[in-house]
Amino acid sequence: MPNSSLLTDLRALATRLAIAAGEELMARRSSLSIDAPGVETKTSASDPVSVADRASEKLITDGLSAARPGDGLLGEEGAVRSSDTGLTWVIDPLDGTVNYLYGRLDWCVSIAVRDEAGALVGVVHQPRTGTTWSAVRDGGALCDDVVLGPPREVELAAALVSTGFSYLSDRRAEQADHLRRVLPAVRDVRRGGSAALDLCSVADGTADAYYEHVIQPWDIAAGALIAREAGAQVIAGPGTPFPAGVLAAEPGLASALTELLSQPIPRRPV
């Protein structure tokens, strides 16, 4: 475990670069839309990537390379470098690209640094609101300067649950089956479109739980640490081990939601 001075420096670096990347994304926002030139697709026709995603990742990786040239890199838009220090930065330069291109609020920059034991520092910055969540392993979590946690205890039937969906149609069909279990059993379900923000919503109490079946490491590297350090249990998602799948909630609710998601799929009424 690095010393506290290094952890403070890593958190400050991640925060500075996340805010700078957010400013870059805000500056480019007015010139982009879902069907604008410069918007391409990745895994499917509904999975866009824009020049803004790539510019944000370049800004972050350039900053990390200048400050920490020996650290590894893993970015959603292709950044990859092996580590000479035992530390690797995991970057989602724009989590919620569809929301960003539609002019919605729910998109963010997510930066984490991990060692052999997992995420060490995590920062999630939401440029449209100016809100920054951050955490250090075993050091608690913050929303701006406010200490987060512990999560409230809530019964499954009273829980507000967030989830997310894949861009692949066959995987969405599987996720629909999971949703058929959950929706009748909880207070309500939200689908925000940014896994990092969904995890931060568990951390700050604006949602009681979040789960997703099949996710990418850069989507949750920072947010999962923030939720855990705020007192949530962060475990495997339905049908997929962590971190390929994720579920975050207060421990009692996490147990109840895990049990619900393991039950047979309810039959549709005829």
Question: What level of helicity do the residues show?
Answer: 25-40%
User: Sheet with the most strands?
Assistant: 8 strands, mixed
Instruction: Compute the average pLDDT.
Output: 92
* Strand runs, count: 15
Keywords, please?
36% helix, 15 strands, five-stranded mixed β-sheet, eight-stranded mixed β-sheet, globular
Description:
The chain is α+β, with helices and mostly antiparallel strands and 270 residues long. It is 36% helix and 24% strand. It contains seven helices and 15 strands. Helix 1 (4-29) runs antiparallel to helix 2 (51-67). 44% of the residues are buried.
Q: What does this entry show, briefly?
A:
By secondary structure, this protein is of the alpha+beta class.
Give the topology, please.
Layout: H1 4-29, E1 39-41, E2 48-50, H2 51-67, E3 72-75, E4 80-81, E5 88-95, H3 97-102, E6 108-115, E7 118-126, E8 131-136, E9 141-143, E10 146-147, E11 160-163, H4 169-182, E12 188-190, H5 195-204, E13 209-212, H6 217-229, E14 233-235, E15 246-249, H7 251-261
Parallel strand pairs: 3-5, 11-12, 11-13
Antiparallel strand pairs: 1-2, 3-4, 5-6, 6-7, 7-8, 8-9, 9-10, 13-15, 14-15
Helix pairs in contact: 1-2, 5-6
